[in-house]
Specification:
Layout lengths: L4 E7 L4 H12 L5 E8 L5 H8 L3 E4 L6 H14 L4 E4 L8 H4 L6 E5 L14 H10 L3 E8 L9 E8 L6 H31 L7
Helix pairs in contact: 1-6, 5-6
The chain binds glycinamide ribonucleotide.
Length: about 210
Amino acid sequence: MDKKTRIAVFVSGGGTNLQAIIDAEKSGIIKSGKTELVISDNPEAYALERAKANGIKTAVVLKNNGQSEFEKKISEILAENKIEMIILAGFMCILSADFTSKWPERIINIHPSLIPSFCGKGCYGLHVHEKALAYGVKVTGATVHFVNEIPDGGRIISQKAVYIEDGDTPETLQRRVMEQAEWILLPAAAEKVAGEIAEKGESYGHL
Ligand code: GAR
């Protein structure tokens, strides 16, 4: 396949999932797509340093002028960079139907639980693991899904289960879910979707 799907990764924090994507591009696990741009809503996100260290263009878009301005600015940057696919990798903002409808089955998200457990509005990051431990489930995991207007509600692409261990804290569980599930699932799903988009060879909306 000659042409690689042009990917933008959206981040808000540490960026270990972004790192997994970058590493997978280097090792050849992701061969159908290339991360051309990293967008963060948080200027302090360490993920931005990871992007810069790997020569990837970055942009910070603040949410302070409301949702529609936020998404308008993001859309402009995506169009300028001819982006064809979006990966939400620890991006802690909800995208509106107005935005997601322009990217049908072109946005994927990693969520740190087995959807439909412990997901939806207010369920993100460490909170997801706090809720899983508080409920007392014995198995959790991670899910990669397409993004639509319902938070964590789009079609599931892949899932991996992870066992909860005695004495787990939200932090130890978060780390195990990342190591055993997220950093494996997300690059594999990114390759699958990027490959499908490259094969279709068609563009949407702004392109
Ligand atoms: C990851 O566990 C990711 O699954 C989760 O936030 C963490 C970000 O870590 N995302 C969500 O909860 C989205 N609803 P990272 O910045 O190191 O990739």
